[in-house]
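Quick review question:
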């Protein structure tokens, strides 16, 4: 009888232990399922936040964003958010579960930043057994709009440079003896095309050349050089402050020709405002910043 009683006690203890072990495994498995679901939703949130911040930064890509542009940036970011599926629903279908916080940081000449914070309450399945109905998931995405053409690839530019002042008159004058002298063939470059250049760093010097060597109605990528003061002559050695695409329209002589601008002539470089050596006039700087290529990129 004693042996039977001991066996019954051991059997009851084993049954209880097995039940507790099974329950523990179920809880751990349930938590793992809820956590994996939360990580899956987090990846959806991060993708949505990235698209929203990039969109918001795109609408801030200007030298000095106005209040209207900031409002527009937020509106477009929220509009993009509503096109994303989060946990099986469009974000605006379950607005009580997903919150979007918009913030922007702007400065004159940039960079301009847009930051999006998304918070979503992920419904649990097994966590409810222990009183946890939701798992809050928060993601942050920060994108910036950067201006600046820092580098020019080799063999992109024609062996020619013009002042930004020539862009107003639309007339090239290559005669250095003329007081309206505003353009020249570059002396340093070997052959017809440029080596690798850094905008705002590399300097070029006026050399000999003839406008008759350039074809009419053909597009040429050329360097824009620092023009100096408005009433002064174009310096014969000057820094490259940008690039442009031009097309000769009417050639009046070997050293005078009218031209027109062609869209898409700004060379695309790495994000960041160019750094200049020496004195730069406000109009030179204005030209470079307003014609610089804007880039939008994630920074967080």
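Suggested answer, residue by residue:
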């Amino acid at each position: 009888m004693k042996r039977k009683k001991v066996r019954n006690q051991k059997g009851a203890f084993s049954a209880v232990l097995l039940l507790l072990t099974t329950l523990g495994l179920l809880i751990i498995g349930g938590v793992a399922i809820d956590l994996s679901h939360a990580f899956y939703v987090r990846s959806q949130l991060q993708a949505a936040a990235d698209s929203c911040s990039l969109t918001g930064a795109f609408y801030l890509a200007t030298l000095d964003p106005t209040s209207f542009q900031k409002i527009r940036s937020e509106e477009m970011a929220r509009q993009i958010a509503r096109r994303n599926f989060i946990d099986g629903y469009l974000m605006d279908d379950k607005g009580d579960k997903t919150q979007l916080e918009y913030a922007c940081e702007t400065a004159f000449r940039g960079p301009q930043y847009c930051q999006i914070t998304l918070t979503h309450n992920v419904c649990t399945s097994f966590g409810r057994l222990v009183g946890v109905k939701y798992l809050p998931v928060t993601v942050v995405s920060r994108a910036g709009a950067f201006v600046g053409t820092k580098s020019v690839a080799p063999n992109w530019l024609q062996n020619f440079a013009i002042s930004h002042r020539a862009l107003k008159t639309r007339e090239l004058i290559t005669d250095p003896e003329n007081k309206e002298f505003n353009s020249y063939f570059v002396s340093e470059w070997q052959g017809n095309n440029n080596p690798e250049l850094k905008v705002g760093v590399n300097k070029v010097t006026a050399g000999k050349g003839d406008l008759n060597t350039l074809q009419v109605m053909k597009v040429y990528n050329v360097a824009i050089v620092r023009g100096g003061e408005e009433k002064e002559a174009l310096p014969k050695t000057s820094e490259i402050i940008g690039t442009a695409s031009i097309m000769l329209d009417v050639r009046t002589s070997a050293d005078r020709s009218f031209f027109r601008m062609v869209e898409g002539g700004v060379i695309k470089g790495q994000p960041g405002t160019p750094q200049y050596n020496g004195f730069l006039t406000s109009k030179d700087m204005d030209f470079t910043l307003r014609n610089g290529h804007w880039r939008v990129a994630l920074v967080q």
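Why it works: The chain has a mean pLDDT of 80. The CA atoms of residues 29 and 238 lie 70 Å apart.
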